[in-house]
Model the fold of this input.
Amino acid sequence: MFTIITIIVVIASILLVGIVLVQNSKGGGLASSFQTQNQIMGVKKTTDFVEKATWVLVLIVVLFSIASAAFYPRTSAIEESQLKTQVEEMLPSAPSADQE
Done:
């Protein structure tokens, strides 16, 4: 499940980058290429769509990023104890107070 959520976040992020690049920082963007109001999707509707798409993609990225924390693969207690044993074996042992 974690992998699926990660893939969704990556796809939404790539789409978000594309939507942001389509927008013009001064409000023109994709809508500025339409010269007349007689288009099927006029200037106002285009900017509304781009703005709504941006907000939807932002919400998807944020919500799925938070949800991914619930599905993050955790190690079990047995794996943690095995890892701790391996780390302790790799580290040089410190001299005890009796040996000094």
The chain has three helices and no strands. Residues 43-68 form the longest helix (26 residues).
